[in-house]
Task: structure prediction
Amino acid sequence: QKEVEQNSGPLSVPEGAIASLNCTYSDRGSQSFFWYRQYSGKSPELIMFIYSNGDKEDGRFTAQLNKASQYVSLLIRDSQPSDSATYLCAVNKGGADGLTFGKGTHLIIQP
Amino acid sequence: GAVVSQHPSWVICKSGTSVKIECRSLDFQATTMFWYRQFPKQSLMLMATSNEGSKATYEQGVEKDKFLINHASLTLSTLTVTSAHPEDSSFYICSAQDSSYEQYFGPGTRLTVT
Result:
């Protein structure tokens, strides 16, 4: 059974600090890894995707992937109150494959 | 950027009736579309994969006769919830996949069955 695990939180981080979100997955056949942000009552919006081991940076966001440990993380630098949301980790096998989502981590950025 | 629309954005229906939800890719062709469901405080769960011109592939535990999916064109997929019951009340979200395999999510449809 494919599973994606995340700490549900809430994770409270002061404004301006680094928020660190973690995710583990069970299916070693997973090839593509995604981080989505979801505001209450809205559909998810893509923040980043990563396919290869290592780090990938995009603005204030850095995704990290370790396939050997089956671990994905997202770092948010200079956290802003507008970053407060639920962050969903998702994986798939690539190609035309649906996404398996974790339950999400509720992040609160305290002004 | 790629835009996916859903209609309606919310719907209330009586138990036993059927509801159709449309998912459209507005500025690209989507060979594959996906349907997800999200219950309160839960994550998105993949219900089915829809390919243009062929039968949908349903995930384990999803009743294909209850959740009818039609993908008649490269820009439109529909999900019909037949004989809806209160336990079908949920947030239904579609995504459309472009030629580079990136998925774009629609805004979702909130279904309430009374």
